[in-house]
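I'll show a sample.
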Amino acid sequence: MRGTEYERDLAYKLYKRGWAVIRAPASGARAKRYLYPDLVAVKKGRVLAIEVKTLKDERALYISERQVNVLREWEERAGAEAWIAVKVRDGRGWRFYSIESLVKTNSSWRLELKGGISIDELDLIDFKLNKSDLGLAIA
């Protein structure tokens, strides 16, 4: 599968759980002018801004400064929760990592694939109340 197919797969999984989901187009000159994440999901007033990543095997993941800025912009403008969704292509399900899990490097951000939460946990949590219970930093 290509990256866009994984985005569609995750969008479908969220949709089946009752989320309204939009997948942003990622190509073309105009796409670079605007700041939007790969997916935006909304359910009963809760907004998720999601950057979607796939890996062949489990290892540290590097995310560009621009991609992190996009997520932060959505946090500020829309009150969205910023998430990195990671699919390791070894049969495991999706894992979600809060933007606070990222560690700054010289030119990008690093995500160690330790912990994270499942799609079921993402769907069930009340982010503001249970973020610390999941071992996530509180912004």
About this structure: The first strand starts at residue 20 and ends at 23.
